[in-house]
Amino acid sequence: MNNLSQLFASLDITLPNALFAVAATVASYALMHGALILFRRRLGQLSEEHQHRTIAQVLGKTLAHTGVFAIVATSILIGLSVLDLPEPWNTRLGHLWFFTLGIQIAAFLHRAVKIGARRYFLSHGRGAVDDQVTVAHTVVIWLLQTTVWVVFVLAMLSNLGINVTTFVASLGIGGVAIALAVQNILGDLFASMSIAVDKPFEVGDFITVNNFSGTVEHVGLKTTRVRALGGEQIIVANAELLRNTVYNYRRMSTRRIVFTLRASPTTPRELAARVPEMLREIVAKHDKLRFDRAHLKTLDQNWIEYEIVYTMLDASFDLYMDTQQAINLDAMQMFEELGISTAPRPQHVLLQEAPEARDLRGEEKPAANEDTPGAASARPRYLNH
């Protein structure tokens, strides 16, 4: 008791001042505790639609982890602040304020980063919850939370009067050295984070990259695994994958089809003019497609060629193949009914026997296909091809 009395005497704290500090502590505790309870109740009374919003989830789950110890410590600091304390106690009280509020804010941000990042990944994904929380997402959350605590520790050391400039410079030099040593691994790691955030493709998407195609099975920290059409598994580095153009066929909404049909150039002009309109009727009668055009595109000595264009409103490849097969069969029947041949123009090939061979002395020798010397010179023959 004597030591406590001496401490109060050295601090020059009077009894009314001490009682006022105690009252301020109790009042601030009651106000903060009541405000926290009221705020939680207000969040609980929100509609189901509003409760599932990101800001409501972050506030609700963050404030739910606000402990009584944090409220008590803040209330005591408020009570001490009303005292006119001499140095160095006033400076120490400032350090306590910074530490208490800083660690509480860091804890809030730690929790908010975790909830907010998970909500972001889930809202930008199409799979189930367990499928979306991948290793890459966990690494992103861990890096953000680590950044929060590193900034807090550096700010706390700086508030205590410690020069952190040299420490930060050392961290920077060490980070550069580590980054140079493991640059390939870090490149794949950051590529994995880019895939997780930007989502150029997801598990289950069918992609084509350079000279291979397949379905994405897994996106890891360093590599992505793709199941090729032949059944083999292709493992490619994430950084290498993002350096190339990726075609994602799962996200196709429509499919534009261009194909050609050929007929004999001997087709009469009247019949050739009827074909585009009949092709329009053949194509347009199918569901889930939009006919674009049909024209006689090419006329040469071998073929007349029709170009037909239509758009599938459903990107299913099986539906496209079934539709194209039906169109081809109907086109074959149309050509047969009109009497239009699809064979090319007949070509005439001229065959001529080799001239008579002579020996070194200039004397005539029979050709290889002649039975007797002195036979008549060969006559040209024509063959239809």
Q: Which ranges are low-confidence, i.e. pLDDT below 50, for 5 or more consecutive residues?
A: 127-133, 372-378
Strand order of the largest sheet: 4-3-2-1-5
Strand percent estimate: 15-25%
Distance between termini? Answer: 124 Å
Number of strands: 12
- The backbone outline, from C-alpha atoms, is elongated
Mean pLDDT: 76
Describe the fold and architecture.
The protein is of the alpha+beta class and 385 residues long. 54% of the residues lie in helices and 17% in strands. It has helices at residues 2-11, 15-44, 48-51, 54-63, 68-81, 89-123, 129-132, 135-159, 165-181, 183-198, 238-242, 269-284, 317-338, and strands at residues 206-209, 212-219, 223-228, 233-237, 246-248, 255-263, 289-299, 304-312, 348-351, 357-358, 364-365, 381-384. The strands form 4 sheets. The protein has a 5-stranded antiparallel β-sheet. A 3-stranded antiparallel β-sheet has the order 6-8-7, covered by helices on one side. A two-stranded antiparallel sheet has the order 9-12. A hairpin with a 4-residue loop joins strand 3 and strand 4.
